[in-house]
Design brief:
- The complex is a heterodimer of chains A (114) and B (113).
- Chain A has 114 residues and is mainly beta.
- Chain A contains no helices and 12 strands.
- The radius of gyration of chain A is 13 Å and the shape is globular.
- By secondary structure, chain B is mainly β.
- Helices cover 0% and strands 58% of the residues of chain B.
- Chain B is globular.
- The termini of chain B are far apart.
- In chain B, 36% of the residues are buried.
- The chains are: A mainly beta (114), B mainly beta (113).
- At the A-B interface, β5, β6, β10 and β11 of A face β4, β5, β9 and β10 of B.
Chain lengths: 114, 113
């Protein structure tokens, strides 16, 4: 069964810590995405990547960085975690090409920064 | 601001009734997609409708698209308690390079027994 796997379902970190959220897909998809989801705000795009070592800023990249060293793995990095980064983080992947035919999502990581 | 806005924000119906959710968007699209999210989980792709299509069916789901009004609706017929979830529309923008979707804020559907 094809899937997107996020390394942690729940995570609690302290303010100022460097946090790594890992995402792995086994579908040979070109595109990978990181969104955060907050009540009343829906899903907001943080970063995405359409190829290995490529990255593009989304709508809210501040305070985040990403890494894509291998096609199947896309990591989100919180350089210095802050309480306003407490959120649900969702990773997704898609096939690639000129039209987006749909995402496959991971189960999400609920991050709490204290 | 969000490209897609769902309406209503919340909907409560009885099992067996139909549920209709609406989505409006602002700019031209390649396609529009609907996703479901069960509480605290990731989103699941339900159905995609292309900009040149007006209606599409998948099981108990019916999606319509009106590009002149920049709106779409999702109809779930004969709803079940298991349909309780949040539903999101997402747009693949014509100018977006085909690589990303823009999501709305979602409709929370509760189906009661």
């Amino acid at each position: 069964d094809v899937k997107v796997t996020q390394s942690s379902r729940y995570l609690v970190k302290r303010t100022g810590e460097k946090v790594f959220l890992e995402c792995v897909q086994d579908m040979d998809h070109e595109n990978m995405f990181w969104y955060r989801q907050d009540p009343g705000l829906g899903l907001r795009l943080i970063y995405f990547s359409y190829d290995v070592k490529m990255k593009e800023k989304g709508d809210i990249p501040e305070g985040y960085s990403v890494s894509r060293e291998k096609k199947e793995r896309f990591s989100l990095i919180l350089e210095s975690a802050s309480t306003n980064q407490t959120s649900m983080y969702l990773c997704a992947s898609s096939l690639g090409g000129g039209v987006n035919y749909g995402y496959t999502f991971g189960s999400g990581t609920r991050l709490t920064v204290v | 601001s969000q490209q897609g806005e769902e309406d209503p924000q919340a909907l409560s119906i009885q099992e067996g009734e139909n549920a209709t959710m609406n989505c409006s968007y602002k700019t031209s699209i390649n396609n529009l997609q609907w996703y479901r999210q069960n509480s605290g989980r990731g989103l699941v792709h339900l159905i995609l409708i292309r900009s040149n299509e007006r209606e599409k069916h998948s099981g108990r789901l019916r999606v319509t698209l009106d590009t002149s009004k920049k709106s779409s609706s999702l109809l779930i017929t004969a709803s079940r308690a298991a349909d309780t979830a949040s539903y999101f529309c997402a747009t693949d923008l014509l100018t977006g390079g085909g690589n990303k979707l823009t999501f709305g804020t979602g409709t929370q559907l509760k189906v009661e027994l």
